[in-house]
Amino acid sequence: MGDTPKKTPPTLIYGILAYIFTRMYNQQMNLPFDLQNIRFQKLLVLSRAGSDKRSESTWLCRCDCGNEKIIRRRHLISGGTISCGCAHRFKKGYKNLASTTHGKSGEKIYTIWNSMNYRCNNVNDANYGGRGIEVDPRWKKFENFYNDVFPLWSENLSIDRIDNEKGYYLDNIRFTTRKVQQRNTRTNRFLTFNNETKCVSEWAEIKGIKTSTLFNRLHNVWNVERALSTPTIAPHATLIALVTK
User: Fold this and answer.
1) Would you say residue 243 lies in a domain?
2) Contact 66, 168 (CB under 8 A)
3) pTM score, two decimals?
4) Per the domain annotation, does 244 fall within a domain?
5) Which of 6, 85, 153, 155 is deepest in the core (most CB within 10 A)?
6) Residues 23-81: pLDDT tens digits?
7) Residue 81 is assigned to a structural domain of this protein
8) Looking at the 3D structure of the chain, how many domains does it have?
9) What is the distance between the alpha carbons of residues 125 and 66, in angstroms, rounded to a whole number?
């Protein structure tokens, strides 16, 4: 009698089926498995944040107002969450900090000013008001803010603090692209490799690795050299290898 062939463990079968159905769902929804750099209403997905208690993927997103928030995948693709919460506040009639007689209330630069003041006056916001990030007192009035920063601003740029430990003052702010801005956040993780220190997303771009893949490697306690030096394997190749074992 020959050796009885080994049976594939049920958990492996379930894992493979779950992977296949997830890919089919993403294709049906016309969405890639990795949501990085995809826009959902006011939210731009920056990177994979991890998973919740139900093993559902969560994603770090930046809202058009500048706030960052971690959101479940299904809330993004279903349209259940369209902003960090600012859209709801405006819909409910959030009272602005200054009059709108300047005629700029419908422009993006006014939204930037309004959101900046809201975040820094909100003591429940752990990243801004809750940790003492302040706005230049002159900028409590929109006209002053507009006159000071308008020469630096253009429609496709967002406000960014050069030193994230300091507040919004003329010598500590700049207007940058979202790509530059997202690499300057407190929540970024920095890695040092070959005597160079960069954030995870920048290393991922340099090495040709998805940011989510690099985060997963680090989460699985890979050292920095291994995480950055190991080439990636196409998902379908991994699936075929598992099925044919």
Assistant:
1) no
2) no
3) 0.43
4) no
5) 153
6) 555 554 445 577 888 888 888 888 888 888 888 888 899 888 778 889 988 888 877 88
7) yes
8) 3
9) 13
